[in-house]
User: Which sequence fits this backbone?
């Protein structure tokens, strides 16, 4: 059974921009680990995806992570796979997040769940 949830994510989502760590490989071997400037780049994706603050569904997330501590600030539910350390921008607020953990559900659904960590507020490069 393949659960089609992508249309719900897009319908209920908020505008985000994603800068893939893979598209930055020509500049550095580690993607955004070196916090390349994104101001001069075109986003790899502009879409409406579900952005959920950590703690909103913490019990479910805690169970999904097999009881480990929650060490992220937001969850992003989307329909396309991006690598770890890609940058996600919440267009409404301008907040920038780094993808820190990925749960790929595309084997039996059309969504991917990302755990995001807010970028360092003192970091001027992303």
Assistant:
């Amino acid at each position: 059974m393949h659960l089609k949830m992508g249309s719900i994510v897009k319908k209920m989502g908020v505008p985000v921009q994603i800068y893939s760590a893979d598209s930055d490989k020509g500049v550095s071997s580690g993607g955004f680990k070196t916090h390349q400037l994104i101001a001069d780049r075109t986003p790899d994706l502009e879409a409406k995806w579900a952005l959920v603050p950590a703690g909103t569904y913490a019990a479910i997330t805690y169970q999904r992570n097999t009881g480990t501590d929650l060490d992220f600030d937001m969850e992003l539910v989307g329909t396309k796979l991006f690598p770890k350390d890609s940058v996600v921008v919440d267009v409404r607020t301008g907040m920038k997040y780094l993808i820190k953990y990925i749960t790929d559900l595309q084997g039996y659904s059309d969504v991917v769940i990302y755990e995001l960590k807010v970028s360092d507020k003192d970091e001027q490069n992303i």
